[in-house]
């Protein structure tokens, strides 16, 4: 682990099992005696909790999709300053459910906004994950899982075409970014996926 903690993010389409794997990985690190901070986007910071309600509210309408994009980055800026950076300074392992890759997948991929806009916003984001696990599975399967657990939020209610663009967006990002490790999350027991993640960490001497 580096001198200022370790920053790990989890990405994936709806229903990919991120929450389960984050909890299992948190337990894994705690068993090693490490301090762990688990957080999420949107909603990790004090302001983020308010923004999350707005962004995920199925009745919320944005007349300009750039508004949605900017709200996500407002959430991210607060999140880094209030939660992520202080935890890393304390040498914690920070595990985050969604981060910058979701902006490319959902806003550039799903919403089909210009990647240039996201690149420009990312120039303000100084904190990059050390490692990202992308839990990949067919969107139809993921959405069926999401339907079983709760009422669908504003993103989960989007079309199948939207979610396929999101998935393709994630896979496209992974082709050019070595920090992203793709994990096949289809037809696997959660514990099996967790063991695969732990093995990868051991190979990296983490």
Topology overview:
Blueprint lengths: L5 E7 L5 H14 L4 E5 L5 H11 L8 H25 L3 E5 L2 H11 L4 H8 L8 E6 L2 H11 L10 H16 L4 E5 L5 H14 L3
Parallel strand pairs: 1-3, 1-4, 2-3, 4-5
Helix pairs in contact: 1-8, 2-3, 4-7
Detailed description of the structure:
The protein has 8 helices and 5 strands, in the order βαβααβααβααβα. The protein has 206 residues and is an alpha/beta fold. It has a single domain, classed as Rossmann fold. The protein has a 5-stranded parallel β-sheet, with helices on both faces. Helix 1 crosses helix 8, helix 2 packs antiparallel against helix 3 and helix 4 crosses helix 7. It is globular, with a radius of gyration of 16 Å.
Question: Can you tag this structure with a few keywords?
Answer:
single chain; 206 residues; Rossmann fold; five-stranded parallel sheet; 8 helices
Write a concise synopsis of the structure shown:
Helix content is 53%, strand content 14%.
- The number of helices is 8
CATH level-3 fold name: Rossmann fold
Radius of gyration: 16 Å
Strand order of the largest sheet: 2-3-1-4-5
Overall CATH class: Alpha Beta
CATH architecture identity: 3-Layer(aba) Sandwich
Helix content: 40-55%
Span between termini = 6 Å
Uncertain regions: pLDDT < 50 for 5+ in a row? none
Number of strand elements: 5
Mean pLDDT equals 95
CATH homologous superfamily heading:
P-loop containing nucleotide triphosphate hydrolases
Count of discrete structural domains: 1
Strand percent estimate:
5-15%
**What's the shape?**
globular
Order of helix and strand elements from N to C terminus: EHEHHEHHEHHEH
What does the main sheet amount to?
A: 5 strands, parallel
Structural category is alpha/beta
